[in-house]
Amino acid sequence: MPTIALAGNPNSGKTTLFNALTGSNQFVGNWPGVTVERKEGRLTANPAVKLLDLPGVYSLSPFSPEETITRGVLLSTLPDAILNLVDGSNLERNLYLTSQLLELGIPMLIAVNCVDLMEKRGDRLNLAALERAFGCPVRTVSALKGRGVEALARQLGHLARLPAPRPWVRFAPVLEDALKGIEAALPKQAEPPPRRFWSIKLFERDPAQAQAVQDRGMEARIRRTEALLGDSSDALIAAGRYDQIEALLAHCLRKGQKKDASQRIDRILTHRILALPCFALVMFLVYFISVSTVGAWLSAALDEGCFGQGFFLFGLRLPSLPLFLSDLFARWQVKPWLSSLVLDGLLGGVGTVLGFVPQMMLLFACLSFLEGCGYLARIAFLLDRPLRRFGLSGRAFVPMLLATGCGVPAILSSRTIDSPRERRAAILGCTFLPCSAKLPIIALIAGTFFGGAWWVAPSAYLAGVAAILLSARLLQKSKRFPRGEAPFVLELPSYRLPSPGSLWRGVWERSSSFMKKAGSVILLSSLAVWFLSSYRWQNGRFSAAPSLAEGLLAQLGRHLAWIFAPLGFGNWQAVAASFTAMLAKENAVSTLGVLYRSAEGGNHLAQALSPLAAYAFLLFNLLCAPCVAAVSAMRRELGSLRLTALAVSYQTLLAYVSALLLFQFGRFFDGQGFTPGTAAAMAVFLALSWIFLLRAP
Ligand code: GDP
Ligand code: MG
Fold first, then answer.
1. Which pLDDT value is given to residue 205?
2. CB-based contacts of 602: which residues, under 8 Å, 6+ apart?
3. Ligand 1 pocket: which of 6, 9, 11, 84 to mutate (most atoms <8 Å of CB)?
């Protein structure tokens, strides 16, 4: 059965074409780096043919995990044929990979995608001349509009029987001589491997081939050629490829004169000065719509309907789940502990969390839209330079943005970052940002202690960003984490209107993990909190606690309260809340709600802590180890239990230190005197300054 690999640059439309050819439903985003794992499917038109959707790459040099995957599939599992998809609206860059693929000695078909865009711009492409040059069939398609896809599918059936194309790029004579020499020194093998490809790789000193260069004594030859031509070997190869592509396009492509809408929009949105205000405005709109107005309204309606008084429809009342169940339990005379377990433990815990789903879905819909239309790629581009000062790059922006929704997809998305150190910095840092589950904590603290002051929520985001930059800077100084700068090639895709289907997939991909969390971790932890607060351990056995203050949770909190006393919230309720928050951040709110509910039904949380201590509590819970779901994602992506433990300890330490500094200095400057706590805070502060200012990077 023939296998065809679908290879092309990121964002050239591979997944769209893959979905069109195989009828599957993979995630499409107008953002390079969406497909990070290979996916398989069969042609709908010809089920005997297997199609592999590979992660997009700019070249066959392994700089990032997805490039390694793609290169591995192409070179080791040797597909029977390659379908090379190139973005017709960006041919110069896309043909670079094509020139490398042509050296693999595998039958190939080149599909030029986005003809719809090319026609709009008035571009004209001479296909016959391209076919003559490359020695393989060239077709045009529009994966999005489905144009040319059927004809392409028919051709793919017998693509594997076509002869393999010959290497296309010819370099300068001196360079060709050097390549011939290297090729001659390659070991002879039974079947003809892509000798041309390997000789170029060796000449470029490809990192994966460094040993071979040393072993075969090719270094001298490479040095000589470099000296003759006056440039490094990899730059010579790249320049040779680009020269030939340029020459080819000069007579095959006539660019239309029509000005692209994308270019006009970018004049404003990526303007030197206007760009950042525009970004702030866009983000404000996103949060305004999804969190405060429409989203809050939907959430409140859902909460009231499902967990409060119920729905009112045309004068009829549909009872909410708790009301319905408590009726039922009363009628069936269910044991009080069981009814408390279901109503307080299960519905109470999971209900508060599910109430956030509308807000979250709306937020994700907005973000998917921004991603799909191509705006987010511009923001990453814009933030690239400032982030580089901290050892991050524009790529780290994606995980950071996702982390404002949920840390789990954010951590997974860090895979598209090339440099290992930056990838780890992103994994470590992204959960410092307030995720949707921390929003309720912020709202609770702001509402209870600061009269709903406007600055509380933004200050939480700022604290998160500061913690990220600080940690990235710290990692930059540490020798434990490998260095390695990979070139940042993030293209700016044309603005496009995302399709409803891809929007929905974006929302689903991001929110399903949250719902799964609600169904598993939060469900279990609600039960645990319920159990720990309604039972106590006495005389060697469990018994129902007469009040919350005598439950297990309270006992535990009292034992550990001394640890948090220097941060200002050394009472057992706040400590218990911080602990249950480790399972899921929303738990902090529900735990505080339960623990501070007074007999009269009111809430005396406001009297329990000073505003300063409350903010320290907020800061600690924002920054400390993320919830268990995020920690397990960290474990998966870091690939090491030790590194994960190190990262989590660091996060918790940072949270502790920040809350300590805030509370102790806050107290001191408020005129409450110099205490041992102040002295400790000063010592910590001096130690930190020493690390950051005095130790050279
Ligand atoms: P991949 O990264 O190569 O897998 O690319 P995707 O399939 O995720 O597509 C990237 C973007 O290009 C998406 O916004 C698609 O809607 C868009 N796209 C794909 N094919 C076409 C096309 O033929 N014409 C136009 N105008 N847009 C396309
Ligand atoms: Mg893709």
1. 81
2. none
3. 11
- If one residue of 15, 18, 22, 28 were mutated to test the ligand 1 pocket, choosing by the most ligand atoms within 8 A of its CB, it would be 28
- CA–CA dist 352, 337 (Å, integer): 21
Q: How far apart are CA 643 and CA 631, in angstroms?
A: 11
Instruction: Give the pLDDT band (50/70/90) at residue 37.
Output: low
Task: Collapse the DSSP code of 366 into the 3-class scheme (helix H, G, I; strand E, B; otherwise coil) and give the result.
Answer: helix
Q: Which residue has the higher pLDDT, 336 or 329?
A: 329
Read off φ and ψ for residue 167, nearest 5 degrees.
Answer: -50, 140
Q: Give the ligand whose atoms come closest to the C-alpha of residue 501.
A: 1
Domain ranges (residues) in the chain: 3-161, 173-254
pTM of the predicted model as reported, rounded to 2 decimal places:
0.62
Sign of torsion over alpha carbons 135, 137, 140, 145: negative
Residues 262, 260: Cα–Cα separation, whole Å: 5
Give distance in angstroms: CA of 38 to centre of ligand 2. Answer: 9
DSSP code per residue over 246-287? HHHHHHHEE---PPPHHHHHHHHHT-TTTHHHHHHHHHHHHH
State if residue 142 touches ligand 1 by the CB under 6 angstroms criterion: yes
H-helix or E-strand containing 147? Answer: none
- What one-letter code names the amino acid at 444? L
Task: Between 479 and 71, name the one with better pLDDT.
Answer: 71
- Domain range 3-161, its CATH number among 3.90.1310.10, 3.40.50.300, 1.10.10.10, 3.40.50.11890: 3.40.50.300
Tokens representing 587 are 């738990």
618 in Cβ contact with 654 (< 8 Å):
no
Here the tokens at position 43 are 């042609």
Fold classification of 173-254 is Helix Hairpins (1.10.287)
Summarised one tens digit per residue, pLDDT across range 269-323 is 888 888 888 988 888 888 778 766 787 788 778 877 777 777 777 777 778 888 8
pLDDT single digits (tens) 380-408: 888 887 888 888 888 788 788 878 877 87
198 Rama class: left (phi>0) / alpha (psi -120 to 50) / beta: alpha
How does strand 3-8 pair with strand 311-313?
unpaired
CA dihedral sign, ordered 452, 454, 459, 464: positive
Instruction: Tell me which amino acid residue 458 is.
Output: P
Instruction: Please name the residue whose Cα sits nearest to atom 9 of ligand 1.
Output: 13
The protein residue whose alpha carbon is closest to atom 24 in ligand 1 is 114
Q: Is 10 touching ligand 1 by the criterion CB < 6 Å?
A: yes
Q: How far apart are CA 270 and CA 277, in angstroms?
A: 10
Ligand nearest, relative to CA of residue 375: 1
At 303, is the secondary structure helix, strand, or coil?
Answer: helix
